[in-house]
Amino acid sequence: DTGVSQDPRHKITKRGQNVTFRCDPISEHNRLYWYRQTLGQGPEFLTYFQNEAQLEKSRLLSDRFSAERPKGSFSTLEIQRTEQGDSAMYLCASSDTGANYGYTFGSGTRLTVV
Amino acid sequence: RKEVEQDPGPFNVPEGATVAFNCTYSNSASQSFFWYRQDCRKEPKLLMSVYSSGNEDGRFTAQLNRASQYISLLIRDSKLSDSATYLCVVNTPARGSGNTGKLIFGQGTTLQVKP
Fold first, then answer.
1. Among residues of chain A, what percentage have pLDDT more than 90?
2. Does residue B8 belong to the interface with chain A, where contact is any CB pair within 8 Å?
3. What is the pLDDT of residue B76?
4. SS3 for A72?
5. Would the CB atoms of A105 and B45 count as touching at under 8 Å?
6. Helices and strands (DSSP H and E) totals, chain A
7. Cβ pair A105:B4 closer than 8 A
8. Between vectors from CA A114 to CA B39 and to CA A38, what angle results, nearest 5°?
9. What average pLDDT is seen over chain B?
10. Long-range pairs, B56-62, Cβ under 8 A, ≥24
């Protein structure tokens, strides 16, 4: 296992369409995090899981966003009825020890809503 | 007020210079502190953890002042390859035993090292 994998790397979609992103964490990591990053800003926390349990969701995560980690392994992030403001880099990270020792990020999915 | 604040820069320095970045955080209960490096259009990568006693890794020195809620990163003898954005990162603990919460990132400080 070479690291955190995200798919797709890039996604261009029309406003109003639904999109789904996938994240495969490092296999022994039980914690998985989603962040969103826009140009000139640091990553902003969206949500995180310990195994299959979603422990926290940011207020940034509107009703159009949903994340799952059904078997405690890979996770999906779905955005429904995309808006231009959703254009960003969506980063996934995983950790085996929580936030005390930092996390490893995937390469991200860059979403462009046109 | 942002939970983690950094001067976005950019800092433009010549090769060989020493440069320092600072960061403040608002949650006094924060327990873990890091500097991440992010290259253009890439994911953030852990540069170093920051310990209360201060710590050094080669040309990089990180310091933490818990009383002032202040973190710093010093880069000595800057190289062209140090050009990147440096993110100050703090954990926000959550309620509940054993829940270490999540990491909160600053806006990042951009460093450009010129020949």
1. 77
2. yes
3. 98
4. coil
5. yes
6. 0, 11
7. no
8. 30
9. 92
10. B60/B35, B62/B33, B62/B35
